Amino acid sequence: MVAGPDGDGERDQDLDLVTLIVARADPPPSATPEQSALLRLCTTPLSVAELSAYLNLPFSVMTVLLTDMLAAGLVTARAPIVRQSVADRSLLEAVMHGLQRL
Amino acid sequence: MDFKGSDTIPGPRTEDQLPHTAAAAVKIVIVGGFGVGKTTMVGSVSEIRPLTTEETMTQAGIGVDDNFGSETKTATTVAMDFGRISITEELVLYLFGTPGQERFWFLWNGLFDGALGAVVLVDTRRLEVSFDVIGRLEERGVPFVVAVNTFPDAPRYPIDELRTALDLPDEIPIVECDARRRASSRDVLMTLLRFLHALAMTKAPA
Ligand SMILES: Nc1nc2c(ncn2[C@@H]2O[C@H](COP(=O)(O)OP(=O)(O)OP(=O)(O)O)[C@@H](O)[C@H]2O)c(=O)[nH]1
Ligand SMILES: [Mg+2]
To answer: Which residues have CB under 8 Å from A44's CB, separation 6+?
Structure first.
């Protein structure tokens, strides 16, 4: 399902604006204030963009913060579904059905 | 930013929280010139109050003269509005509004990578911006449709004339819309999805 951008093979987990972040645990005592704030926000899944908005941090700063937290096992990331050269029709149909209900 | 009082950082309202089952997101970008109605369109279809994320311009992208002082430098931060629509318990759609002017194209890398497609929002009083945006999307291979936001004081052109003016191939849909109305904005998104679906059919016939 995942088609990573070319030339970015070094990092196994690229964070997108719409990668969903979920806290794995309550903030440990060692957590920084930023980390604690972030963990409290994503007890339910929340996109990197939403975290950036609520924490008032630019996207580039968010990715640095989250990369550390992912490495420390504090959060998990659910990768977005990206456009394929041959699009996934069932995905598009699901989105259409969702929009029709609006 | 002071995180000491992080208990008070506003998060999503309870009713705005995604279910734990939310497994993946997709994104669509709404792009157009200043004041064309991007934020209005995001807001009219979003299930959450539109939020704003910021990005800072990379060094290469700035033409800031130090003599202008710190006020000028803050202009290197660009805000993007976005909204959200839950599609199913597992799938979430995010909509981003982004300015179309060339000096904001540095934002496009992370934004358009992986996006399902784009809506080019057009104000007939300022077609030039759309022209550049369309060229750029074509270069990047991002599929898009064109939506003409109908402002009362803007000139109305037949779709054919707009197609010629924008130099758009016949297969790319052009629709009129009123970004303030949810149903109208939703129809624009449906037009994009149908277009993407048709593209998928031609690329991989069943
Ligand atoms: N008549 C009419 N007015 C609209 C429509 N869409 C937006 N507006 C108005 O146009 C103004 C600009 O709309 P915005 O949604 O802020 O435009 P924008 O593209 O986000 O603008 P910037 O972010 O400043 O570039 C607002 O006052 C809207 O109420 C429309 O479809 N019809
Ligand atoms: Mg706006």
So the answer is: A22, B12, B17, B18, B19, B20, B22
3 state DSSP class of B121: strand
Q: What is the CATH number of the domain that holds B161?
A: 3.40.50.300
The enclosing domain of A6 has a CATH number of: 1.10.10.10
Look over chain B and give the mean of its residue pLDDT values, rounded to a whole number.
87
B101 touching A, CB under 8 A? no
Expressed in angstroms and rounded, the spacing between residue A66 Cα and the centre of ligand 1 is 34
| Pocket flag, ligand 1, residue B40 (CB < 6 Å) | yes
Q: Tell me, using a 6 A CB cutoff, whether residue B148 lines ligand 1.
A: no
> pLDDT for B13-67, tens place per residue?
998 999 999 999 999 999 999 899 999 999 999 999 999 998 877 544 444 444 4
ipTM of the complex model: 0.88
Amino acid at A33: P
> Considering its fold, how many domains does chain A have in total?
1
